[in-house]
Every structure is written in C-alpha cells, then in structure tokens.
Amino acid sequence: MAEKPTYEDLERRVQELEKFESEHNLAEDRLKTIFDNTQDAIFIHDLEGNILDVNDKMCRMYGLTKEDALEVTIEDVSSSRMSMKVLLERWQKVLHGEKLLFEWEARRPKDKSVFNAEVSIQKISFHDKDIVLANIRDITERKQAEETLREREEKYRLLFNMGVNAMFLVDNNTTQILECNNKASQLFGYSVQELLTMKMTDLSP
Questions:
Q1: What sections of the chain are H helices per DSSP?
Q2: Are residues 148 and 132 in the same domain?
Q3: What pTM did the predictor assign?
Q4: Which one of 58, 101, 136, 162 is separated from 70 by 20 to 30 angstroms, measured CA to CA?
C-alpha cells in the first residue's frame, strides 16, 4: 500500500507547481511582448480561416481596433482586385503543410485604401492545436522604389536607342558588347542582335 504524502511532500509539490506556473506565465508574457512589437502585422487563424487573434501592428497597419480586427474576414482585408479563388488554393496548400510567400494587395476595411503587402503564411501547432499563422509586411515603399527604378531604366533605354551617335556598353575585360543602340547597328551594318554576339575588337579594321 502506497504511503500517504507527508505535509512536507505536499508543500514541495505546491512550490513546484507555483514555480512552473510562474515560468509559464513569464514565457507567455515574453511571447506576447514579441507578438505585439514585431514589425509585421500578424494574423492567427483557425483552419477555416476565421481570425482568432492579431497583434498591435496589424491594428495600426489596417486602421482597426482589436475588437474590429477580430470581426473582419480575409476578404474584408483584401483588395477587390485580388482573387479569392487563388487565395483558397493557396490556403489548401498551407493546410497540407506548405509554407508560402507571395505578394498581395491588402485593403483597410474602414477607408477602403489599399497597399502592397508581402504575405508569409504557414500552419503551425500552438498549445497542441493547429493554427494558421500569417505575417503581413507593408511593401508599398519597396514597390514604389521598384517602379521608380523601372521608369528610370525605360527612360535611359529610350535615350540610349534614340542617340544620334553610335553607343555601346562594353565589358572592360573582354570587350564583349553588352548593349548597343540602333545608330550603332546602322553605322556598322549589323543588326543589334548580331552586334551583341561580337566584341569591339571584331569591329576594328
């Protein structure tokens, strides 16, 4: 027959439980601090897509209170230009274990303004329960910078091709022709495509 625990045994067990609870609460507090201070908006969904929790950054990014954020749907925070069919296909991939990274046009439900977002989404296990974790990063400034660079490149190419003089972009080490304009093609009697297979030394008399 097992001996009954002594008072000292019970007291020690209570102290162990209190220590475990304290450490557990500390870990929860640290996790909450990280959750609310990350630079990305975070959504926690159940497997059906319902929003279970969001962090403070999400509320600021989408212009919502915490209470409002828990009432919206994925469609509410997505631009009308985005395909829900495509999103559903991606969601199914996530449920089958894939981690996805893609760009998306997000929408703020209250003022209907949109912004470019990079979405990282995966299924994880938390407290023995499967959830879907979505990290949203506002990449509007990055997209604007990319567009500005693209416009500058188009302007450069237009000026390059319309130049009244023959112009070449050449590898300094090999003299391989990397780019040339239409005037160079006219002057040397080769097509632009042909010139791009040649070196400047090939054009020397």
A1: 7-37, 56-62, 66-69, 84-95, 140-161, 182-188, 192-195
A2: no
A3: 0.64
A4: 101
Per-residue pLDDT tens for 154-163? 888 888 888 7
Q: How many domains does the chain have?
A: 2
Q: Which of 63, 54, 130 is nearest to 96 (CA)?
A: 130
With contact defined as beta carbons under 8 Å apart, do 51 and 44 qualify? yes
Query: Rounded to 5 degrees, what are φ and ψ at 5?
Result: -65, 140
Q: Are 79 and 107 in contact (CB under 8 A)?
A: yes
Specify whether 50 is located in the same domain as 119. Answer: yes
Q: Which amino acid, one-letter code, is at 3?
A: E
At 1-43, the pLDDT tens digits run 456 555 465 566 656 655 555 554 544 555 555 556 678 999 9
Whether 69 and 117 map to the same domain: the answer is: yes
Q: How many CB atoms lie within 10 A of CB 13?
A: 11
Strand partners for 137: 118
- Say which CATH number the domain at 198 has: 3.30.450.20
* Maximal C-alpha separation, the chain: 109
Counting every residue written for the chain, the total comes to 205
